[in-house]
Structure formats: structure tokens, C-alpha cells
Amino acid sequence: MTTTESEAKAADSGAGATAAFLKKQGAGADTPPERVSQLATEVITAVHDVVRRHKVTYAEYDAVKSWLINVGQDGEWPLFLDVWIEHVVEEVANAHHQGNKGTIEGPYYVPDSPVIGARGALPMRENESGTPLVFSGQVRDLDGNALPGAKIEIWHADADGFYSQYAPGLPEWNLRGTFVADEDGRFEITTIRPAPYQIPTDGSCGKLIAAADWHAWRPAHLHLKVSAPGKDLLTAQLYFPGDAHNDDDIASAVKPELVLDPQPAADGNGETVVYDFVLDPE
Ligand code: MBD
Ligand code: FE
Description:
Helix content is 28%, strand content 21%. By secondary structure, it is of the alpha/beta class.
């Protein structure tokens, strides 16, 4: 029996994201002990403070303990950290940028996706559902010079909210590709508009969301990494106007500068959108 998307489980995407992250890790940060001690002490002290202020009970302490154990067993540490913590790390890391705003990477990036060229379609199934979308633009430096050969990596969910390599039944590189800007720094990407996205609800993160009476939604989004020699890598996501979750993204990763302005296509088939990238120097 072939596994289908509808059978996708949190444990599948969680375990996949954990395996992919561990593979990407090199030696880790070269952090001196004084800094490790300071950061660890402050995190632990912040937890003590919450326990005292809210008189956390033993029942609550045990509930948290078993939940933390389960996050690891589900492989959902990447999901948990990227949804609730990464946006502040990104804010701090890129505060000095003068070019494009970036946002979080999230748990589902895969390096080395198929190279398409300056113009073309992302790998997709023959009858991939979703509104056709043609996304074009130019990559420039802070002085407005075009960056020929800039690399634009893009990945996004399908119309059912599933990412290839993190849900069963999808072609390996579905809706993932690498574009290379032409001599004028320009590119044109043909794809489909993704749907609003619910993070997996059947794992530990879903359990937290249900227990706290939150919701699990992210607005529809395209993920991108834009890079060029001598420039800072830009990791971004692009959103669509009017999405109900642009204002209450569970991952807090929407910025007004990242909302696209799509227009009906001239040929009546779907939408076109123009969005340029400006990269900061390294
Ligand atoms: C996603 O697709 C995503 O972009 C983030 C940030 C978290 C979970 C799933
Ligand atoms: Fe995503």
C-alpha cells in the first residue's frame, strides 16, 4: 500500500525535521564557558521566577516534565523551537540589515534542491492543485546594482499544506527548487499559491496548543533563501494579502514588508507577482 498525504502524521514530519537538523549540524557554536554559564543561569532563573510568581504545583511540574519528554520522542524540538523561539533569534541576528527584511527558516528547508535556471517552473505533480502563480523579481545590492548569478532557493507547502520530504506520498523535490538570477539579476518562478498551513496537531506541539486553547495556523507562505557571493544570506518568507492569519501567525513570523501584492495574470490563468530582493554585504 502506498502511503498518502492524508495519512501524514506529526511523528513523520517531526522525526524528519529532527533527522535533517542533526545532519546539518557541524561542530556547533564555539561558545566560551562564561557565556554558556550566563545564558543557562538566566534561562533557569527565569523558570524559577515563573514557578514562584504563579505558585506552580507538583501536578503542573509533572505535566511539563512528561510533555518535554514527549516533545523529544515525537521529534518535535525543531518544530517547537522554530514556532515559538526562532523569530526572536532572527530579529536579533538581522537587526542591522538595511536591505530586505528576513524572517524565520522554519523546520522544513532542504539544501541542494534541483537547479532550474533563471526562469522556469518548480517541480510539481502533473495536476498540482492550487492557483497558478508566476513570481518574478530582481536581486540587487544596497547600492542598487543587479546581482547576476544570485541564488534563489524556494520551498513551500502544497495546496493541502504538506511539504515534500516531510509528508509521505509526495515526489522528493515537489515544490522545491533553486533559481539562478540572469545577467540583470532577474528571475521568474512558476509555481502554485500555497494554502494556509496548520502545524501538525497530533503531536506534542499540538497538545500544547490544545491545552492552552491556542490555534495551530500559519498564513499561506513561500519560503526563500537568497544568496550571492560577498552578501549576507537572506532567509525570508512571503505572504499573501488578506490572509486571516497574517495578524495571528502561530510562529510570529509575518512582517508587513513580506506581504506580496499579487495581480490577476494577463492571460486569465492565475496570478503574477513581482518582488525584489536587496541583499546586505557580508
Ligand atoms: C512551517 O511550515 C513553518 O514555516 C514554520 C515556521 C513552522 C512549522 C511549519
Ligand atoms: Fe513553512
